[in-house]
Amino acid sequence: MHLLNPFQMNDWDNKTFFWAFQAFQIAFIGVVSLGLVGYHIPIAREALAFLYLTFLPGVLVLKALRLHNLGTIETALYSVGLSLVVLMLTGLAANTVYPLLGYARPFSFAILFLTIIAVVQVLLYLALTRDREHAAVSPVVEVSFPPSPAVPFLALLPFLAIIGTHMRDEYHMVTLLFLLLVLVAVTGIAVGFDRLVPASAYPLAVYTIALALLYHTALISEYVWGYDIHHELHLVNSVLIPGLWDMNIPYNTNGMLSVVALVPTYSLICDLDPIWVFKIIYPLLFALVPLGLYRVIEKQTSPKIGFFSIFFFVAFFTFYNEMISLARQQIAELFLALTAFVMIDKVMDRGRRAFLMVTFGFAMIVSHYGLSYIYLFSLIPAWLLLVVFERLQVRLPEKITERFGFLKIDPLAPAGTGGGRSVRTLALPYILIFAALAYLWYSTVAGGMAFATIAGIGDRIGDTLFSNSLSPKAAQGMQILTTQSITPLHSLAKVVHIATQGLIAAGLLATLTAKRGRWRIEPEYLAISLVFFLINVAGIIVPFFASSLNTSRLYHITLIFLAPFAVIGGIALYETLIGKIHGFKVVPFMRTAYQALSVFFVVFFLFNSGLIYQVVNDSPTSMALETTEDKPVFNGKEVQGAKWLFQEGGSERPIYVDGTRWWLLLGFDPDHQRYLPANASLMEPSSYLYFGTYNLVRENVRIEAQKGTVTVAGYTDAVQYIRDRNRIYDNVGAVVYYR
């Protein structure tokens, strides 16, 4: 059966496109209107609003740019990215213009709803007038019944995560989450051994595995959990409550439109609490990052290398643990993936490519300052590498360029895609524009805090670079490598992590020395990858470099470009061993390089997910599977206790809280809380003390201290802190004391 492909609406003929668009828009407006008069249709408004906001503006921009025949994945990803840009810019414009016109609450439902509808109508007019000549045959998608057995199996994974987290929260049962992780591991093995999952299902596998892993942690608890996300929630509420974004609040995060504009927009139009925007909608968007990276890698190598590159990327625990509490970085990484998408596209018209790269670059800047700085500081050396290599191609003898594949012109490559004098998409004007936009935004918004932060980090690194290099006290990466693991099994996990770095190094070397036709890695992608590898090394040896973001986050960011080289390195090492060790293929899981790699990456995943530790009860680490240890995961009673504290005047006096509960209170007021001191006598008089459920049940508190560049923590008896204090609030899950 053949159906119109909804992911390529911009390729439909104009008449079909117009009527389909209007039908969807009328349905969306109708459902919203029914809700306003009291007739709420469950899920309908949320679903239609999400689709309307997330896809349609971007589709209209693509049509206005006359970009067609991009392919299903490319069109869908570009549509989402451009839609998010439109939403953020609409929020920024509304917040700037409406107060000047006398409307004090631009972030209110009525004003924002009408504004978005108006913006979409303008985009529709531009799309139809600029693309009036387009009359191509509308693309169709072939639907077969029954589908491949892999399709329902893969589609089941996110739903298993949703049901599993519900069972965990309500009944403390983790059986389904345990099963989910096993099925993800089985999928990795199946691809390596060419079983069950055909190559045509790899994109679906990539997206559903990523979304399932995100949901298996994001949906824990009915409240946000983690670290930075509590501050992000506080800033979102500081926009929603007054209906206005105060861009002068001096916090780095306050300058990020991915938080202060995008979340309020989804919350108001979809009629969702911002908590559920973070927990449901943002994972849906963030799971597109692996899908986009898969397509970037697949276009340069092969589907199987693309799959295992992304399996490696999502298997690393930062993807589904730390990133859950970094909403702004989730959106920024989507724009970085889209930038890589455009960067390797040598066929697209130069003007449209420049527009997309600058647009996605600006969107990255207003989404996350840390990722934007890393990307910016990688562009300059990457551009220099490209310029030097271009000169070497001309001046070096033929024997040398024959030896090093990355210097050799590929005569088999299509025109403009790497053969001959290829079009270079990483150009100096782009770097200068990106740098100028970053400087203008970070130096003016949120009191210039984002710009001051990077300047402070630079000064600190400069002051200690030569005196503390390789020192575990100053270089967080070195401290992690040299610290003794708590158990032999955790030591083995560290060896596996180090092995991935070795595979990446081997992959880069193999790419640089292989014939150009072997991998077809685009020069721009390779140049940035080389710089990102150096950033990894800097995270180990340069003082205060990795700790500015956190070593695991830094590694996760570099994997956006480096992940495929771990697979290439594994293939190169396998081929080398085959040549030197006879009988190597006799081992059942070593008959092909992909079989060996699938086993290795599944082992890597089992360590990172915490499944192995949970099975053998060896210091479990999983946020999802482990339910008894102290984590920044908070229940309804703890949240209610925090709300009561601040409603009753807690923001006027110091509030003492231990290291874990500190993050919960951060979501209400970041200015009055204090870490519990190791000595209770150091607590100020006329202050509050907040205890959560873990403090009450275990009768201890978490005391944190900074040791070099790593935070160390220990637990101590809670009794000393509550002596001579009055219990003024108690809901059995949270207690507030006062003295």
Automatic annotation (TrEMBL):
Superkingdom to which the source organism belongs: Archaea
Keyword terms, alphabetized: Membrane, Transmembrane, Transmembrane helix
Any matching Pfam family: DUF2206
Membrane-crossing residue ranges in chain numbering: 17-41, 47-65, 77-101, 107-128, 149-167, 173-193, 205-225, 275-293, 305-321, 373-389, 430-457, 495-513, 525-548, 554-574, 594-616
Name of protein: DUF2206 domain-containing protein
Species the sequence originates in: Methanoculleus palmolei
Higher taxonomy: Archaea, Methanobacteriati, Methanobacteriota, Stenosarchaea group, Methanomicrobia
